[in-house]
Amino acid sequence: MHCNKCGRDDFIIIGKENARKAVEKNTGKTNQSSLETPNRLASTTICFLFDECVYFSMLSIVDLESMGFLRYHAQLLLHDNHFILMVKNQSKAQFGERMNRIAQTYAISREQITKAVFSFPQFAGLDHSRVVADLTRVYGVSREQITKAVFTHPPFAGLDHSRVLRQAERIGKSFGFNREKISEMLLAHPPMAGYSQRRNLAAVDAFRNAAKRTGVSLTAQQAMQMYSKMFMTSPYPEKGSKKRETYFTRQKKPKLSRLGQLVEKRLKNIRRPR
Predict the structure, then answer these.
(1) pTM of the model
(2) Is 133 inside a domain boundary?
(3) Is residue 268 part of a domain?
(4) What does the pLDDT look like over 13-34, one tens digit per residue?
């Protein structure tokens, strides 16, 4: 349906009864003329009453609770538009079957799946047979390793891993990493796969500058071990800026990133070559 108030074409109301209850709850009365039939549910009326576009789902909080979600998590999911748009046409039985297929694909418990869906609602809409096939093809690892990576960081399942690994290989050459080592690092630390190429290049810049300041050369293994413990630290000198350390040096206003400071501190503890 099209909303004449906000201009969105994906405004959706599922079921006459759900719309009636929602309107009654928020206004204390029902606009009968707009609720005569499902086809006549007026988006303009609902938008006016709620001051925003509201998505309705066939699933209820009780339905999600019966599938293993905590009540608080179910409430939040049913207010998440990404989740609602994925399940808008699914009944309790259909969504339950989807959850069962995910459990069979990874051979894990329903509890782990509900946690993954809550932390990353889009997880429920992915084709997980394809996800596993893609990860197996790109990284060449076992299903157990894939399952561990996916459920350590659920957004890992939604990435284009051919592109992720291709970009990581280009950047990894700066540290002397080969494809096997890069794959190992990404699977051991799944959040790393979601970082942009710009951020990873800024991290390389911070490592290089720290090495120059201390005069210490790192082996590929040392660099990998160090970065795997620090990769979540910002490589940007200024908060909110995407400029590398080298940019500020060229501007004659040298600044160190938090990552650069930590790397320098760690390198100072390494014996300098004679």
Answers:
(1) 0.72
(2) no
(3) yes
(4) 444 455 555 555 554 544 444 4
